[in-house]
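Worked Example 4.2. Read the sequence first, then its structure tokens.
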Amino acid sequence: MSDRTKLDLIARIQDALRGESLDGWLFCSFRGSDPIAANVLGLDRSQIATRRWSYYVPADGEPQKIVHAIETRVLDALPGRKRVYLPWQELHREMQDAMSGASRVAMQYSPLNAIPYISRVDAGTVELVRSFGIDVVSSADLVQRFEAVWSRDQLDTHLYAARNLREIVDEAFREVGRRVRKGIAADEFGIQEFIWDQYGRRGLISSDRPIVAVNAHSADPHYMPDREHTAPIGEGDFLLIDIWARKPDAGAVYGDITWTGFLGEAVPERHEKIFQIVRAGRDAAIALVRNAHSEGRTLHGWEVDDAARQSITAAGYGKQFIHRTGHSIHEEDHGNGANIDNLETRDDRTLLEGTCFSIEPGVYLAGDFGVRSEVDVYLGENGPVVTGTPIQERVVPILR
């Protein structure tokens, strides 16, 4: 990050602080405890940082760098005045003096740990800042703005990933069908290996291997086969594939989709019924996002979760929908933007233009099978865009 870019970043942060009526944003880290700070500020994570440091960006004025005497250069890449401390008493004095006159300061803190993704500052540091007479508020929406909003180049990397993932699903279903028809042994791990090879052929990487789950395994949302734990796939089986990947380029972001199929010429009614219930929940969530944009209405993550969950609950399967509706997508598959959640947390963050999230409701019938249908939604300037199309409308009959 060039000096000009860093100054531009600070100016944008200060504009955002003034817009939120905040006096400043305090970043604090100890041994890498706050990766959000490193991401937002563009810090080099490879440099040694074994002591506490803080970086305070006021709404107006010069940023303040508070660093330990044996690591005075740890924040040299950032603009601002350097304050060096040695004993802990000096750390407290320098922090208080740096924020002199402030009354409301944002930190990576979430009241009652409602949004764990944001809770990166320890309770003691929050107590310390409050002892200065400062009201600590959550930086949740600031983090979104400066970490989760995509550039045009990032959107392009997502569209590439989404398009290729969509093609890989079709390739995987065809490969399963080919093996079953020809009597070639097929199992979850083997198809997982096939998908992993497809990633490499298409210039994609992933933090984790894809989920390939057959029959009762599909009722476990985070089931993952491996070489020692894998089930055969054959005619009459139900199959779920969940894949996520990105380009290896710096700044590239993920795509993430889930599809289901049946190893037969026709899909049994019981599988199709559950799929259509899940699909209705998925589409209710997408419709809410689209309607809110057309009405110019602010939308929060928890509201979209409610739309999907209410639909599935009305169909009689609310208790079998055992996870949030979706998650933020960024350079990590699970990013630091707003999640689509009013189950595991109440995510009251605003869904911001330029961010992306999954919508992936599911119904899981333990011991039998489970259905999840996952799409990605990017909030563009002209409205929400569902990527990786066409999206699934029916269970795929793989042996048709």
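Now turn to a second chain, presented in exactly the same format:
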Amino acid sequence: MITVYVFGNAPRPVWNVTRDLRVLWSLEETGLPYRVHPLDFERGELKRPEYTRIQPFGQIPAIEDDGFALFESAAIVLYLAQKSGKLLPPSLSFQGRALAAQWAFAAVNSVEPALAELFVLDHFAAQDDHAKERRPTLVEHAKERLASLDAVLGSRSYLLGDEFSAPDILMSSVLRLVQHTDLLGAAPDVAAYQARCEARPAWKKVVAAHHQRLAA
């Protein structure tokens, strides 16, 4: 049984975008059995020794799988895909797996930083003078990243072709960071891709449970 460490509470602005959602979504897609272990951020549970032995930086998410501990959402999503034989089909070639890793890394390294900085500014520092000055630069950076992704998705349904896979969980989760803006309107193929990903029953189940947990 896989244990998933998730947020037991979180500020309202980060509901729907916490990185534990990526792991939970992967588990629902793969059908692997798991249990959720919520941690209380406000009480400092993420920094306690019993958790930092699993996640030395005291961040969410992390998993334990029969004594094997793993952190970083992209690493966990790829691990679950390989363990289950789903989201990365066993028939995928060596080069195909390399492409899957490429897009997983692109989601969290090339796209997420630009979008995450804008998200944080808009939700936690919007009234700061410095934030107001910096926002146009962040918007332009986000537009560039989304335009590049839009060019890719114009010729395929998902990142690896016609089938939904592990990198799509990561990329579509990252894209949620700008759903409070109109940026996806300028990237119609990205917007359509995001809608396809979020129409999946596994995502709808996970986000509903997420709301229920954080609202408790």
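Notes for the reader: Helices lie at 20-30, 49-52, 73-84, 94-124, 129-153, 166-175, 188-198, 201-215. The first strand starts at residue 2 and ends at 7.
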